[in-house]
Design goal:
Blueprint (H helix, E strand, L loop, with lengths): L1 E6 L16 E5 L7 E23 L7 H5 L9 E26 L8 E5 L4 E4 L32 H4 L4 H24 L9 H23 L1 E13 L6 E10 L3 E3 L7 E9 L10 H11 L3 E15 L2 E19 L12 E5 L4 E6 L1
Parallel strand pairs: 1-7
Antiparallel strand pairs: 2-5, 3-4, 3-7, 5-6, 6-13, 8-9, 8-10, 10-11, 11-12, 13-14
Length: 362
């Protein structure tokens, strides 16, 4: 049977863009802002992209005569649409965590201190411009491909066929026309045609036209199958708790992607497990006061935790990998005195998607 492949890339726009893809701004600590700069730390979001294959099968008008006249035993016998979940990929990125915004104040005698931020205010660097390396795509983007559209087969039907008194007679005459087209092609190929094409270009045009007519008429018996590949994306922003088999969405072979609460589909599960859980120590009041004092000054940054991410459907694990998750980690602080050197300012570069320190240059 004929199979036409039509590919397109369906995109769902997400409200959160990758921080490292944004332009940056430089904020200087000057007298006008009391030598203070506000910044925000990021938290981790996870984007899950599902690739769906939609196959549409349309029965031919004369499918019941396919075997009798064309010796085709497996024509499409009924119209149907089938969906298949072919792949699931994931990527993580940072989004601004408004609950973790801070103001850092430099000493007035510090030499021209500045902080580089994303346009959303997420910290990228101190006393240094931020240069980001492009991320490697985890999924191959689907390429557009024009469908193989055949002409309307009825435009090739003769008056005899159209006026035939029964469906069986029409099918018989159409089958004879298909065999005549095949014979004409074969005669041209072997050079036995009465009117051979005069040159190579004419030969190609004639053969293409005969092939298109044959395929279009044959479709009336065997039917048509087309396939479309699309994608849909979901975003999950975890808390500091583990996620145990959360239903991300459901999938039905008759409906495709359906909401998580629609029981017409089978569940797609997401699990996220903290590999490095932190046991918070029991502090004395004096220790709590000292810790609060420490975090009241300086630059607070993230130390992300490690997590196992798993995404499964129908007993198949599509995603199984380790990722960094800010919400599973902790925070620490760079002391103010680090930046008091007037002769050689300390530079700190952060991972903007994590808020973690990438490099300290002294």
């Amino acid at each position: 049977m004929k199979r036409t492949i039509r590919l397109f890339f369906g995109v769902i726009l997400l409200a959160t863009a990758s921080l490292s893809a944004q332009t940056t701004v430089k904020m200087s600590a000057v007298k006008g802002n009391n030598y203070g700069v506000a910044y925000t730390l990021p938290k981790t979001s996870i984007t899950i992209t599902a690739t769906i294959l939609k196959t549409t099968r349309t029965a031919g008008e004369y499918y019941q005569y396919a075997e009798r006249y064309l010796n085709i035993s497996n024509p499409i016998r009924q119209d149907e649409t089938i969906y298949e979940l072919t792949n699931i990929t994931s990527s993580s990125k940072g989004i601004p965590d408004k609950g973790n915004s801070f103001l850092v104040e430099f000493r007035s005698n510090t030499t021209s201190p500045f902080i580089t931020l994303t346009k959303d205010g997420v910290i990228c660097a101190i006393n240094s411009d931020a240069v980001f390396e492009p991320k490697t795509a985890e999924a191959t983007e689907l390429q557009n491909s024009a469908p193989d559209v055949l002409p309307n087969p009825r435009t090739f039907l003769s008056e005899e066929i159209l006026s035939a008194g029964s469906t069986a007679k029409q099918a018989e005459l159409i089958a004879k026309q298909i065999y005549k087209l095949r014979e004409s092609k074969n005669n041209i190929l072997t050079g036995e045609a009465d009117n051979m094409p005069p040159d190579g270009n004419a030969y190609k045009i004639v053969m293409d036209q005969l092939t298109q007519q044959e395929k279009a008429l044959t479709q009336m018996f065997i039917g048509q199958e087309t396939a479309e590949t699309s994608s849909v994306a979901f975003t999950v922003v975890p808390s500091d708790k583990n996620i145990d088999k959360q239903v991300l969405f459901r999938f039905s072979k008759h409906l495709g992607v359906v909401p998580a609460d629609d029981l017409s589909g089978a569940p797609v599960y997401l699990s996220l497990t903290n590999k490095t859980p932190i046991v918070k120590p029991i502090l004395t009041p004096k220790e709590e006061k000292a810790l609060a004092e420490k975090f009241s000054k300086g630059i607070i940054y993230n130390i992300p935790g490690k997590a196992n991410l798993r995404i499964s459907f129908d007993s198949k694990e599509f995603v199984k990998k380790e990722i960094d998750v800010v919400q599973y980690g902790q925070q620490d602080v760079l002391a103010e005195k680090m930046f008091d050197n007037n002769k050689q300012p300390v530079k700190v570069i952060f991972f903007p998607d994590l808020g973690a320190i990438k490099q300290i240059i002294q």
